[in-house]
Q: What sequence folds into this?
């Protein structure tokens, strides 16, 4: 079994497999039950955000588990995110998230997107008119650093940032981002971004590491790909485990969402799978196949965030 944690550039460690808590339904009981199951299986990394609406359910489940002695607070890693309408005051935004979570601090606080939304925008898929024309990222990041100074979080980072945007951030940041959380899977491999982040010791965390099956904007193309299925058969594993193991082999952590006990166990089983060089070469062919066929999967063509991505001046 590979190590289940990786050390960040600030010295703290992050579990390499995390449970995502976003769902369109956002049913509190389903989320709480899923978190309890995940804890029993061995998950210690939980990902949420203001806009997911899952902070209260996640916090309640974790508090119950701590009270029951299932886990200590120091043993879990909680990530939340600054929504685009809160760029003017990250400190207040994080305090509100902490109140919903019922926690004194989160382990990671991320800038959710490199865009600023108008103050009233509180829905996950903004319209084009919801965007502010100018984002003062220096002011935003200063607020993020203040959150860190106040002990409201242990680490700060970014999400959905291109290498160009991170490079601009590093010009004025006193504290560099510890993490860049982006969509990444065998058919959207993010090699350029991974290489850039590696140069600056910024850890890449992958969301939708299976290609987003089950989401309205996602696709089963990754797990249904014949190459993935062939590798899974070879290792007596599953295509999902192959996809997750691929992400782990690239040095990323993976955030995978399921509230199903069998799927939660299956996903954690990726830690026991080690892909060989031939497997990795075969998976690279999937990327080539995607480009040749003109398929875009869950990128800016089909993602619910295509409006956000369309407004970027560069691509991830």
A:
């Amino acid at each position: 079994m590979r190590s289940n944690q990786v050390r960040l550039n600030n010295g703290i460690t992050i579990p390499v497999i995390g449970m995502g808590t976003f769902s369109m339904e956002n049913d509190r009981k389903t989320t709480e039950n899923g978190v309890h199951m995940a804890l029993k299986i061995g998950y210690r990394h939980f990902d949420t955000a203001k806009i997911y609406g899952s902070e209260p359910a996640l916090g309640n489940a974790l508090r119950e588990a701590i009270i029951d002695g299932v886990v200590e607070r120091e043993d879990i890693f909680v990530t939340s995110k600054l929504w685009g309408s809160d760029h003017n005051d990250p400190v207040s935004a994080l305090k509100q998230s902490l109140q919903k979570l019922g926690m004194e601090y989160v382990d990671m606080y991320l800038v959710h997107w490199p865009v600023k939304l108008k103050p009233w925008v509180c829905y996950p898929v903004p319209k084009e008119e919801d965007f502010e024309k100018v984002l003062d990222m220096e002011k935003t990041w200063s607020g993020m650093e203040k959150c860190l100074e106040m002990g409201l979080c242990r680490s700060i980072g970014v999400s959905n940032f291109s290498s160009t945007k991170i490079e601009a951030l590093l010009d004025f940041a006193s504290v560099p981002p510890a993490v860049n959380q982006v969509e990444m899977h065998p058919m959207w491999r993010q090699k350029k971004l991974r290489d850039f982040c590696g140069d600056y010791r910024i850890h890449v965390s992958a969301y939708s590491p299976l290609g987003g099956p089950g989401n309205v904007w996602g696709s089963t193309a990754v797990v249904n790909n014949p190459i993935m299925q062939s590798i899974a058969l070879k290792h007596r594993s599953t295509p999902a485990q192959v996809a997750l193991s691929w992400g782990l082999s690239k040095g990323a952590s993976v955030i995978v969402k399921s509230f199903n006990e069998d799927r939660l166990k299956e996903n954690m089983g990726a830690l026991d799978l080690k892909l060989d060089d031939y497997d990795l070469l075969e998976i690279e062919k999937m990327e080539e196949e995607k480009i040749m066929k003109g398929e875009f999967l869950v990128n800016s063509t089909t993602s619910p965030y295509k409006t956000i991505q369309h407004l970027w001046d560069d691509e991830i």
